[in-house]
Write a structure and sequence with these properties.
The complex is a heterodimer of chains A (97) and B (487).
Chain A lengths: L1 H19 L8 H11 L3 H8 L6 H40 L1
Chain B lengths: L1 H24 L5 H21 L9 H21 L5 H29 L11 H4 L6 H30 L12 H21 L3 H23 L7 H23 L2 H24 L4 H6 L4 H5 L17 H9 L3 E6 L1 H6 L2 H13 L3 E6 L9 H8 L7 E3 H4 L8 E5 L8 H4 L18 E6 L19 E5 L2 H14 L1
Parallel strand pairs in B: 1-2, 1-4, 2-3, 4-5, 5-6
Helix pairs in contact in B: 1-2, 1-10, 4-6, 4-9, 6-7, 6-8, 6-9, 7-8, 9-10, 13-19, 15-19
Classes of the chains: A mainly alpha (97), B alpha/beta (487).
Chain lengths: 97, 487
């Protein structure tokens, strides 16, 4: 039952994702890809929850690895996207002066 | 119990922020705030997980802190250091890390719940039977296989894409003999090993089989990107971005977490749409891109390459080019991948400003697949402060070439090849192009007469109104600017 519910949620999310980006100007394709990429770093939540298994060195190594990789994805992704987008923004200010 | 429900509500808020973020990312005016909203959503998700993890588990803080600090430092440094021209590689690499993270989550889960508590070898039965997982043992087991598979393919595929984009690997398509059979064997064999590992096998055999799945998936990622040429990498990166979302979603099924499932699915769907948009701009199907080998026949047989094929090429030096531009009242720049390679975006903008100062109308025509990422040229020109209003999309500007004095093409080739509309037999027939050939004069800044990615001849080089400007884009344009300023 819970599985069906989760599957339902999964399908709905796909439908929403489909609708969300149907109309995007090409200018924003790279930032959008990069921003979406950062969001896919949500696996960081899964990585953090892995850190519960403290018995055994293997689990700890895997835990640190998962968290570190996901964090790189999240932090790097959002910062890089912001850097790109800040250039579009600064241009508008430049126009005013 | 109360704490658990509040954390669930906050997860919902995070999901909402992601949806809102993606929505706002699709409009220029709101894009930056959209990205920031998504980042806030992510921060919220992480904080909730740290304070009140689902199921009330206890986190190992050493592991958490080391992981977060390490990842934060590396990710932050990379984001700060990367050049705007290196953006495609950066996105590919980050994407790969995300995919690998999902794989490791699934492996850690597999290891932690199955192998370690039972003492590995002593595990009594197959992983699927061991625990009543949140979604049931079977779902858990299948999700582990899918998460490991998709995550690992994303990882090695992204690394290959990064190598091809940065030039560390040859951008040419590499066609292994029997590659279709090989990819099929790797994929099906990997899945079979994985499924048998989580359902049928016991103890260390199960672990070995799951690791076999990892290796097969890694090889599959490499083999499937190898035959695809460097200029198709944007499509590949975009598709892999979609995969990394799906991998996160599968990891969500593994740990029974709806936030992962939803956010991953959002990225999976939007990544796929973006991939389709890119393919459409090249007038090719996704299948055609993924089978690979595009442009290989032309380039390797020598049929499309080399200067000897062109008979009546006129060339112009910086001085002559400056003279042509001096008398122009309307100029359109067409940037391409060559501009990114030569890092010529700043000098392009300098030239544009100089021309504007002289009362000339200056615009930039952006082909949807110019460069190595969708919007690659927009980002580069934005970096050098070209006003957004001067960037024109293909449909909006194509009718205006007829009335334009000079078109300056900086490092673009296939996207201005008139073959696409004039020769129905051409491999690129039907691809939308920028009609540069219709303008009064064309200045084509290029290193040589070598063919573009499609590996075919470009008759534009020989047109009466075309001047080839041989040289490095940056150096050549710099000289043109100097000439113009002196005159």
């Amino acid at each position: 039952m819970i599985f069906l519910l989760m599957l339902f949620v999964f399908m709905l999310a796909i439908a929403v994702g489909n609708e969300l980006i149907s109309k995007v100007p090409p200018t924003l394709h790279t930032p959008l890809m990069s921003g979406a990429n950062a969001i896919s770093g949500i696996t960081i939540v899964g990585a953090l929850m892995c850190a519960q298994f403290t018995d055994g060195i293997m689990s700890q190594v895997l835990g640190v690895l998962a968290i570190a990789l996901a964090t790189i994805n999240v932090v790097g992704g959002f910062l890089v996207t912001d850097r790109m987008l800040s250039m579009f923004a600064s241009k508008k200010k430049g126009k005013g002066k | 119990m109360a704490g658990f429900q509040i954390s669930g509500l906050l997860y919902l808020v995070a999901t909402f922020l992601f949806i809102l973020g993606i929505k706002r990312l699709s409009k220029v005016r709101t894009a930056r705030s959209g990205n920031q909203l998504a980042a806030v959503g992510m921060l919220l998700a992480v904080l909730v997980t740290l304070v009140s993890p689902e199921g009330g588990i206890e986190l190992s803080w050493t592991t958490v802190i080391i992981g977060l600090a390490l990842g934060g430092a590396v990710g932050g440094t990379m984001a700060k250091r990367v050049e705007m021209t290196g953006m495609p590689e950066m996105v590919a690499l980050l994407n790969g890390f995300g995919g690998l993270a999902s794989t490791v989550v699934a492996l850690a889960e597999f290891w932690g719940r199955f192998a370690a508590p039972q003492g590995g070898l002593l595990a009594p039965s197959s992983p699927a039977d061991i625990l009543a997982e949140p979604l049931g043992g079977e779902v858990w087991a299948v999700a582990i296989v899918l998460s490991v598979l998709i995550g690992t393919v994303t990882f090695t595929g992204s690394l290959m894409a990064m190598g091809k984009l940065s030039g560390k690997l040859s951008g040419n398509p590499v066609l292994l003999p029997g590659r279709h059979a090989l990819t099929a064997v790797l994929l099906l064999g990997g899945i079979a090993a994985g499924l048998f590992g989580v359902f049928g096998a016991e103890g260390s055999t199960a672990t070995t089989l799951v690791l076999t799945l990892c290796v097969a998936a890694a090889a599959f990622g490499v083999v499937s990107v190898l035959p695809i040429g460097g200029a198709d990498m944007p499509v590949v990166v975009s598709l892999l971005n979609s995969y990394s979302g799906l991998a996160a979603s599968m990891a969500g099924f593994v740990i029974g977490n709806s936030l992962l499932i939803v956010a991953g699915a959002l990225v999976g769907a939007s990544g796929l749409i973006l991939t389709m948009v890119m393919c459409k701009a090249m007038n090719r199907s996704l299948g055609n891109v993924l089978v690979g080998g595009f442009g290989d026949t032309g380039a390797s047989s020598g049929g499309g390459g080399g200067a000897d094929e062109y008979t009546s090429v006129k060339s112009a030096g910086p001085e002559e080019s400056a003279m042509i531009l001096e008398s122009a009242t309307s100029v359109i720049f067409i940037p391409g991948y060559g501009m990114a390679v030569a890092q010529a975006q700043h000098v392009v903008k300098e030239l544009g400003e100089e021309l504007e100062r002289r009362g000339c109308e200056v615009r930039y025509a952006i082909h949807p697949v110019a460069g190595r990422m969708p919007g690659h040229m927009n980002v580069l020109l934005a970096e050098s402060d070209v006003p957004y209003e001067q960037l024109w999309e293909l449909e909006r500007i194509n009718g205006d070439f007829k009335t334009t004095d000079v078109t300056v093409i900086v490092g673009a080739n296939d996207v201005v090849n008139p073959e696409a509309i004039e020769n129905p037999q051409s491999p690129i027939a039907g691809m939308p192009i920028l009609n540069a050939h219709e303008s009064g004069t064309v200045l084509m800044i290029k290193r040589s007469l070598s063919p573009g990615y499609a590996g075919i001849k470009n008759p534009l080089f020989e047109r009466d109104n075309t001047y080839m400007c041989f040289g490095d884009g940056k150096a050549f344009l710099q000289e043109v600017v100097t000439e113009l300023k002196e005159s």
